Amino acid sequence: MSTLALAAPPLLAASPPKGVPTREHLWLCIHLPDLALQARSWAPGAAGAVIRESAGQHVIHAVNDMAARQGVMAGMSLPTAYAVCPSLQVQARDGRIEARRRRAVARESLAFTDWVSLDRPDAVLLEVGGSLRLFGGLDALRSRLRQMLARLGLEACMALAPVPLAAWMLARSGQTVCVLQPAALRSALGELPLSALPISYHSMQRLSPLGVRTLRDLWRLPRDALARRYGRALVHLLEEALGESPCLEGRYRPPTRFCRRIDLIHESDRLEVLVPMLDALMEALGRFLIERAAATSRIRLRLFHRRAAASTLTLQLSEPIQDWRHGLRLLRGKLERAPLSAPVMALELTSADLHPHRPAATDLFDGHAARQLDWSPLLDELRNRLGEDALRILVLAEDHRPERALCSRADRRANSPPAAPRPVWLLPAPAPAAAPQWRLLSSAERIESGWWDPPAVQRDYYQALDREGRLLWVFRDGRQERWYVQGIFA
Amino acid sequence: MNTLEQLLVDCPTLFRGGQTAAPAGAFLSTGHPELDALLPGGGWPLGSLIEVQTPTPGLAEIRLLLPALRRLQRESRHVIWTDPPFPPYAPGLVQAGLDLARLLWIAPATPADLWWCAEKLLRHPACGAVMAWPARCPQTVLRRLQLAVEAGGGLGIVFLRQVAATSPAAVRLQLEYQGAHLWVSVRRARGSWKQGRIRLGRADVPATA
Question: pTM for the whole thing?
């Protein structure tokens, strides 16, 4: 066995690494060691511990500083911990809250890169190779990430490596190092204890009698022998950590629907209370949209009341927007004018109608285009105050019957108006004229159409001058033998 | 140089009654040469309010404004019809040479809404013209609209049946029908003393497509 081991080339000196990560992939791992603790809230100054269940027993999973000072350690059984520290506050570990906190970190991280992975436990991995330059270098990026984590109330250990597994192992071992070159991975990882590898406790127990304490010790062993005795998986893991075999890192996909709710401490129907809440919600929506490079065309605000049904304010925009300030202005206006039926308990803002954001193209030399820029926001503002129906856009429709030629259904749009003259104004309904006092100016235009789709018309149209000097569009109904005014040429 | 001449030079608010002040700002031809000749600057003054008195809605107000509206639309500005007396009719508008994509019909529920949205629109640089047909229009509203249109640089056009003796509008016109002709009287044009009446055309000429 030992001769074999000597004959085989050592793992690290093996031929040039095959699967070296291409180009400048760099993985930054945010390891959250105290996530279990920070996911729960604690009374200030209290000794606290999170417990988990292990083999039917409650075992301390994590302890805060106060508890650690009094001698409580992770791995202790609960009775032992109570014996050491009788005032210990204990909370069960809540995987759901932890997952939610981790997702929150992932969501915020999307502001820095588009490839965020939640594959590794207690950690969030960011591919930052492409964003280092944008954010002004590693130090600047790290300080921004730290600010982001502080905002979320989390403490983290960050490490950087060209391989996700290596970055994760470094961060998990509390090493805030930056390894930029794959070649430097060996020396960086070599001193890590065996426990840094994601292997089972059992495997570790089997390795320790060999005198293997660090990863370097492990690499010194021949690869094929290692595979034979401890399984191919272990060798794979080692190869993966050095970037010799590729590892596929998952990609976190953020939810495509925004929904956030704020509960008020006291019910209120006062705008000075509600408007700041709305501001906060809209700002969150704005961040949400920027992270996804998305825009929304429909925003719904629901106001919950204690005894009445929730009231809903819907904002429909003519063009998807990303700028939350515009949406806020409109929604504020709506809220200010909306009669509140009862005091509000909670506000909920939802937006499911996401579109890819297309920034407006601006032309340096074209003043017309620049003028058009905020035309549709203005229309939104008008529509918002005057109502959906107050703003009307005119289209031509394909129908010989004059009153049907202005419908806004898209399927019957026409490209050109009829050849015969048409008035600028059309009366809502033809006005019967009992004793016509006008002079006919043109020859008749016969319109006979629509027998398949009532009302059918059979009319002779004329232009006529009335006594006030107006040019009218009049017709004589072929069936009723009566005169009607239908339009004014103006 | 005598004292009077000296005063005319020194004091910018003094001018000779006979001469027309040099027009400042941009003007847009009305498309009616005789009317252009009457108006200082040779056309509608952009960024100002125009008041048109018509005895009855639909006399010829669109015919009067149409050339200017078409020009404004060609400059990719929008033309807005706020609360017209009758619904605008798309085929007729297209025949008149207007671009429906840059035409908006707004039907506000109350006069307050009408003035609010007219003011909003007039302030916007992409807005070429706002036309309104109010039943009555208080001086304060006209003044606000004048300020708004100065900011936006378009045209604000108010059609009224009854007009007050004074008005902040830069141009005040009157449309009349008399002896088979349509007449436009310039009752006031800012920067000019000229008053006069021109024939817009015969009223009994049928429209052509």
Answer: 0.60
